[in-house]
Amino acid sequence: MGELKFIGKRVVYLAVMMFGVATLVFILTKMIPGDPVVANLSQRALNDPEIVAAYRAKHGLDRPLIVQYIYYIRDLLHFDLGTSIRTSRPVLDDLARCYPATLELALFSIVIASVFGILFGIISAIRRNSILDQIVRAISVTGVSIPAFWFALLMLYFFYYKLKIFPGPGRLSNSFHGSFLLLLKFRTHGSRFPLM
């Protein structure tokens, strides 16, 4: 019975936290300087009051702030995240398309971090305060200190470009495609790139 009560409390805390985060996101988006109409319509369209009014009505920007908030929460509860301004498709569809790649990356990162974390932990426990332990500590601190995006570029550069032992950027099912190849093409055509 105590476990059910504990789980129930956690579910309530989770709901309150999600509601708080959603409210905070709404407030922050409304505090951002600038008008979304100006940001999304062309200068020619802005000169036409009918187009501006239609855009505001379509996206609910002509309603009072509290009404916008109620519609925002209602849409979130119905898993309606709206339409992307960049792709003009439902945001949920874009997320569903990108989520498998994110899952692959996250799972692979967890596996790599677990293997090296356990290995380094065993080495440090067995060879405590030895030179090997000091080296493992230095590697661990360096790994935590380097920004992830820079570390990823370094790993791609050494293990993919120089040593050619790891696959390049892209999905697991794809061959060597991605932005890093574009950078490598710039390098081979005589362009200077500070990393290399």
Q: Beta-strand percentage?
A: under 5%
Largest sheet: none
- What would you call the structural class? mainly alpha
Taking the alpha carbons of the first and last residues, their distance comes to 61 Å
pLDDT < 50 runs, ≥5 residues: 174-184, 186-196
Could you give the count of β-strands?
0
Percent range for helical residues? over 70%
- Element order: H for helix, E for strand: HHHHHHHHH
What integer value in Å does the Rg equal? 25 Å
In DSSP terms, counting alpha (H) and pi (I) runs of 4 or more, how many helices? Answer: 9
Shape: extended
Return the average pLDDT rounded to an integer. Answer: 80
Describe this structure in words.
With 196 residues, the protein is mainly alpha-helical. The chain is built from 9 helices and no strands. α6 runs antiparallel to α7. The longest helix has 36 residues. The C terminus is likely disordered.
Give a short synopsis of this structure:
The chain is mainly α and 196 residues long. The protein has helices spanning 2-31, 36-40, 43-46, 49-58, 65-77, 91-126, 131-145, 148-162, 179-188. Helix 6 runs antiparallel to helix 7 (131-145).
